[in-house]
């Protein structure tokens, strides 16, 4: 099974699409970490 990012890039044909996708993944990961730290701090 191929990489979803490469598959989406092939479907859209837009080289800048995966950049937005990666940024969204990073932001979601950061939000998850913030929530995790908040729970641990309590």
Could you walk me through the main structural features you see in this protein, from its secondary elements to its overall organization?
It comes from Escherichia coli. This is Oxidoreductase. This protein is mainly alpha-helical and 42 residues long. The protein has one domain. 81% of the residues lie in helices and 0% in strands. It has helices at residues 4-12, 17-41.
Topology overview:
Blueprint lengths: L3 H9 L4 H25 L1
> Which shape, going by the Cα principal axes?
elongated
Oligomer: single chain
Number of domains: 1
Structural class: mainly alpha
Q: How many distinct beta strands?
A: 0
Beta-strand residue fraction: under 5%
First CA to last CA: what distance? 41 Å
Mean pLDDT: 80
Order of helices and strands: HH
**Radius of gyration, taken over Cα atoms and rounded to an integer in Å:** 15 Å
Main beta-sheet annotation: none
- The level of helicity is over 70%
Query: Count of DSSP helices?
Result: 2
Question: Main attributes?
Answer:
42 residues; mainly alpha
A few lines on this structure:
The chain is mainly alpha-helical and 42 residues long. The protein has helices at 4-12, 17-41.
């Amino acid at each position: 099974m191929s990489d979803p990012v490469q598959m989406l890039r092939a479907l859209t044909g837009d080289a800048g699409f995966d950049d937005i996708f990666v940024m969204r993944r990073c932001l979601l990961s950061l939000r998850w970490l913030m929530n995790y730290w908040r729970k641990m701090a309590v």
